[in-house]
Amino acid sequence: MNRAKRNPQLGKGCSFPRNHSSVGLPSSFAPSGGTLHLIQQTESLRTANPPRMRIENLKKVFRTGKQELVLFENLSFQVHTGEMLAIVGESGSGKSTLLHILGALDRPSAGEVFFGETPLRTLSEEAAADFRGREIGFVWQFHYLLPEFTALENVAMPLLMRRNASPMKIALEKAAGWLKEVGLLDRADHRPVNFPAESSSESL
Fold first, then answer.
1. Which string of b and e fits 3-31 if b means at least 16 CB within 10 Å?
2. N- to C-terminal Cα distance for the chain?
3. Over the chain, what HEC string results?
4. Does 150 score more than 50 pLDDT?
5. Residue 134 CA, distance from chain mean position
6. CA–CA separation, 82 vs 49, rounded Å?
7. Res 145: pLDDT
8. Does the pLDDT at position 42 exceed 60?
9. CA 147 to chain centre
10. Residue 84 and residue 63: Cα distance in Å, rounded?
């Protein structure tokens, strides 16, 4: 593994693959004592595409009675079209919380997430649900598939449930295309009970 240029806030001994950079938070901001790392492509790989998402001075605080836990703060970065971003950290360092905020499932205590030019904090609950249905895809640690439907029908479901829903034929055609992209078209008619329970991460 080649060492990349490290953010001075990151812990000692951290190394990242070439052509990647990192953004880190001090370990004192993580309840487990760990550090939240964002590993993404370097600027040279990102200048060709405009930012799809901008995160500015993000902060998340959990309060229980008089206790206040700052999970992260002053977190700023950009995600460009076509870019891959990995969020790495120990259990309790804020990975899932950050994903939930980026996906409009939760709101930050301060700061802003822009999707294009849309500030997600200003969205109502209804508008946030519509935004998730149109723009965000979640891959959960557990599959949450509906057992009474086939794989094809499960994949097509968001297209049928969202506002301005797609016609059934078009939704099934798109779902089949997505299954083909990930090599599962041959299981289109299988129900969840026929799929192995293999999943160990949460993605956005």
1. ebebeeebeeebebeeebbbbbbebebbe
2. 26
3. CCCCCCCCCCCCCCCCCCCEEEEECCHHHCCCCCCCEEEEECHHHHCCCCEEEEEEEEEEEEEECCEEEEEEEEEEEEEECCCCEEEECCCCCCHHHHHHHHCCCCCCCEEEEEECCEEHHHCCHHHHHHHHHHHCCCECCCCCCCCCCCHHHHHHHHHHHCCCCCCHHHHHHHHHHHHHHCCCHHHCCCCHHHCCCCCCCCEC
4. yes
5. 15
6. 8
7. 82
8. no
9. 25
10. 32
Q: Counting every residue, how long is the chain?
A: 204
Q: How far apart are CA 55 and CA 114, in angstroms?
A: 6
What is the longest distance spanned by two Cα atoms in the chain?
Answer: 55
Q: Report the distance separating Cα 129 and Cα 34, nearest Å.
A: 32
What residue ranges do the domains of the chain occupy?
1-138, 141-192
Say which CATH topology domain 1-138 has. Answer: Rossmann fold (3.40.50)
Give pTM, 2 decimals: 0.61
Q: Return all residues near 68 (Cβ < 8 A) that are at least 6 apart.
A: 61, 62
